[in-house]
Amino acid sequence: LLDFALDKVPDGWEATAGRWQFVGEQIEAARQAVRTYASTGLLTEGNFELEADVTMEPVSGKADESKLWEASVLFNARDRENYYAARVQRQAGKAYVALYKMIGGKQYTITAPVPFPFPFEAETTYRLRIRLLDGVITVAVNDSEVIRAVDHFFSRGYVALSNLNTDAQFDNIWLKREVPIAGPVTVDIDERIFNVTEVDTFQGEEMDI
């Protein structure tokens, strides 16, 4: 779990675009007209589950209201021009969740924006949940799954954060991922050691253990 309660960023944190500061024991990206980018240093590789609290501040004025607001959690991110992005978006009073991949600075849509699963309110914290399992990406807001898609372009990278046209806060970033086990896994049965990746005999019978 990564939180910002002590107004400290983790080892590996690197903000390469935007203005980032601590606000109310959260990390905040100030409103920018171009997308910001900060890597948390948390590695995503293989299968994993990722969660983060996301909050967007209200923007006043008709000109600002018509712009696209974004608060994004990025994963398998190599740098600010190459990553997957789960974006919470709001424009003209309507809110959406969308999944994109950025390749060489060009954004490609994986799924069309999906309407927010419940009425969206600024200054309200939502839990964005992302899961990647064998190329299947699911995105949920709180406990409501809104996106399921398949993509294999990026296989590893880092968790990163981004915003656009609105102040956005992030907190309580939680990551659970599979870590390959180095070497064989063994089990001791009746004082015999078995390699669980092999087929062997036990009491005269062939067994895959």
> Which bin fits the share of residues in helices?
under 10%
Number of helices: 1
- The outline comes out as globular
Unreliable runs, pLDDT <50, ≥5 residues?
A: none
Strand content: over 45%
Order of helices and strands: EEEEEHEEEEEEEEEEEEE
Rg on CA atoms, Å: 21 Å
Q: Overall pLDDT, averaged?
A: 88
Number of strands: 18
What distance lies between the first and last C-alpha atoms, to the nearest angstrom?
35 Å
Q: Give the neighbour order of strands across the main sheet.
A: 1-4-13-6-7-8-9
Q: Which class do the helix and strand fractions yield?
A: mainly beta
Q: What composes the largest sheet?
A: 7 strands, antiparallel
Please supply descriptive tags for the structure shown above.
globular, 209 residues, 1 helix, 18 strands, mainly beta
Characterise the protein shown here.
The chain is an all-beta fold and 209 residues long. The protein is built from 1 helix and 18 strands. The chain has one helix at 62-65, and strands at residues 14-17, 20-23, 26-29, 37-45, 48-56, 69-79, 82-91, 94-103, 106-115, 126-133, 136-141, 144-150, 156-164, 168-177, 186-189, 192-195, 199-202, 205-208. The protein has a 7-stranded antiparallel sheet, with no helix packed on it. The protein has a 7-stranded antiparallel sheet with strand order 2-3-14-5-10-11-12, with no helix packed on it. A two-stranded antiparallel sheet has the order 15-16. Strand 11 and strand 12 (144-150) form a beta hairpin. The radius of gyration is 21 Å and the shape is globular. The model has no long low-confidence stretch (mean pLDDT 88).
